[in-house]
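Retry 2 of 3 after timeout on previous attempt. Resubmitting structure tokens to design endpoint.
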């Protein structure tokens, strides 16, 4: 059985999911995990709910809403298919939350040698200003979101590869790999807007996979929004054809993830009910 066929793989990846894109602050509340990162990305600013818990469901949802609103962040719930989410999903729907960003967790085995390196991928083990500048410029982040991005990426504690792909003297793509034992997680893969359609996304992804193999990884995983057809096409072509689980968010219509002016607030975790 290959690493990608392990029946316990999905729960293990979900258990370590948060450490590959860490929040600035995390609270545990009756089996739910509340993550805050100055409002940048739903992944780092959402409540992961995998089971009902012991406290009344409506009370828990209201307490989570209050915690996020105190920080000027829209409350968003993340519901992975590895959990017992049907009742929670229904309660959020009755409360006016709608489904958003249906996301697929996909895996690729790294047991076969990758093609020889034929690209100019430079890898740093820590966050660099150069990598950050390209990421924030290509993602068109303002100063507040840039600060939140830097806080998240700079908080990764696992071994990581901050990779840039060059074409001559020009940086054309960037990406990030985080190693978790014999697994690597890939994310923040982006091609410079003026360089798209030239195969650089494929090249930076392969460079990160080679880095993972060199450091003992047997399996790679990533997440992709299911409506992102170009990304799905790219990742399927690179071997990420198998979905092992999925998640979706529940958010209130019209809400946006807004960076808080002062980062984290002095709000307290939800009180026991």
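Retry 2 succeeded. Sequence:
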């Amino acid at each position: 059985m290959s690493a990608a066929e392990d029946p316990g793989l999905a729960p293990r990846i979900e258990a370590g999911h948060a450490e590959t894109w860490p929040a600035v602050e995390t609270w545990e509340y009756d089996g739910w995990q509340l993550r805050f990162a100055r409002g940048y990305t739903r992944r780092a600013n959402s409540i992961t709910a995998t089971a009902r818990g012991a406290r009344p469901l409506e009370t828990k949802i209201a307490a989570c809403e209050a915690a996020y609103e105190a920080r000027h962040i829209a409350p968003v719930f993340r519901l992975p298919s590895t959990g017992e989410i049907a009742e929670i999903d229904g309660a959020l729907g009755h409360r006016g939350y709608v489904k958003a960003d249906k996301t697929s967790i996909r895996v690729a085995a790294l047991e076969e040698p990758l093609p020889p390196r034929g690209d100019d991928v430079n890898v740093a083990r820590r966050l660099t200003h150069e990598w950050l500048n390209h990421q924030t410029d290509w993602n068109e982040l303002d100063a507040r979101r840039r600060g939140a991005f830097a806080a998240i990426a700079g908080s990764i504690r696992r071994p990581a590869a901050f990779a840039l792909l060059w074409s001559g003297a020009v940086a054309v793509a960037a990406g990030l790999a985080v190693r978790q034992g014999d697994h690597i997680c890939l994310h923040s893969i982006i091609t410079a807007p003026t360089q798209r359609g030239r195969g650089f996304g494929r090249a930076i992804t392969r460079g990160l996979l080679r880095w993972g193999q060199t450091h003992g990884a047997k399996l790679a995983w990533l997440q992709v929004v299911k409506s992102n057809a170009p990304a799905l096409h790219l990742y399927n072509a690179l071997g990420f054809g198998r979905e092992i689980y999925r998640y979706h968010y529940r958010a209130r219509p019209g809400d946006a993830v807004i960076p808080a002016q002062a980062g984290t607030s002095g709000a307290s975790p939800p009180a026991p009910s």
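Attempt log closed. Confidence is low (pLDDT under 50) at residues 258-268.
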